[in-house]
Amino acid sequence: PLMRGTLGQAFEFAGAVYTGLIIGLIYDGFRLLRMPFPNKPVAIILDSAFYIVAGAVFGYSLFVLNGGTLRLYIIAGALLGVAWEQFGVSLTFRRMISHFLRKTAKK
């Protein structure tokens, strides 16, 4: 639905941040898929698949948020969401898993 005015833009920005979080989680999923395949051709295929999926998610969300109008604050919100996921949520989980693996390896 189209929202007008400053309040609508705030909701659109929040939706873009949420979209960025989702794209970050998708990236983590593709990162896990890439781990067993160190060779370059598989990495290129998986990276391409990620960009296609991320673009589709962003495009769909753009239409849902404001009818498909690309605005700078929407891009900034999505980038903020990806950064929040990668340097907050994902980083915390990776550190916890790494710590757990080190503890279990010592035993």
Mean pLDDT: 89
Order of helices and strands: HHH
Q: What's the total helix number?
A: 3
What is the end-to-end distance? 55 Å
Question: What fraction of residues sit in β-strands?
Answer: under 5%
Radius of gyration: 17 Å
* Helix coverage percent: over 70%
* Major sheet size, sense and barrel closure: none
Unreliable stretches covering 5 or more consecutive residues: none
Q: Got a strand count? A: 0
SSE class = mainly alpha
Silhouette: flat
Describe the structure.
- With 107 residues, this protein is mostly helical.
- It is 86% helix and 0% strand.
- It has three helices and no strands.
- The protein has helices spanning 5-34, 40-66, 72-106.
- Helix 1 runs antiparallel to helix 2 and helix 1 runs parallel beside helix 3 (72-106).
- The N and C termini lie far apart (55 Å).
